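_Full entry_
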Amino acid sequence: MWHLSLRPYYLKMSDKNLSRRNKEIDGIRSIFWYHWIANIIDSEHPEDVRRAVEPNKSTLSADGGPDKNGKFSHYRKGMRMPNASLINQAELLIPGSSAVITHPLWKILRQEGDVESISTSLVWSLNGRVRELMLTGKNQVRSKVTDAYLAHLIKIGSMDSLAGLTLIFLLNVEKNNSEGLLDCADAITQTLVLLAPLFRAVAVDELLYKAYVERIFMLASHDGYTRDWKDYHYTSICEFLWRLASTIKARETGRSYNRQYYVLAALRGRFRWQKGEDLMPRKIPDERIGPPTEIGMQILANIKKLRQGLDSDSS
């Protein structure tokens, strides 16, 4: 079972995290929260989750028949958000459940407009290791993208580091600094892969990746190139990488690394049998800014051949 190293956030009904709605992100939050509780109680049935969260509430309607209130079924599908009172009540009975639905990541993903003005307060709400990396001695957020900075955040491999990387990306977008956007987007992708077992366990893996494609990755472009985020088979590649990591770790003799190490190594194309071919989304010309170059056209042709090969393998 996964656990988040977060303090619980007790909410008031007027809390801004709940008052400003975003259908897509709030749907993911609701599904995450529901399945987190379901995993804790070892049952995904809405009535069981309801009893765990509202143990003193009658399951009978006013006329004595079965209560057909379907709000927990709606939470399960992301069709409805639990209110602050219910979230706080669930936290008392199932510690940690409020952290998954009020995590700073959701505020960052649905932020519209100015990011810099709230960046320091957001970083202060993150885990200590992430916070120490991201804040300078003057209490300012480090937004400059460097390989070492990104590598440290990837290595942490938590929802907090994912939130931090997403914030860094948006700060660079806001400053019109495209140079580090692809590197930062790559770091976010690698962290999403590291967190895939968690996101799959709470049924948000595909939804969250889609949200990143639409809200974050589509902004990643530099020198006329981007990556093929939209057609990247995130869930199937994650499954392959984690199975591969388990196999390699089981065969290791002597010094052995954790599975995350092998996942990242394969994702980056570090094994000799990969011959330098990584499993990241392919770099392609950004057709939104003009016709691709001759080299770019060749990249697109190679991707087309690869897709045709994948299609023939699956047929």
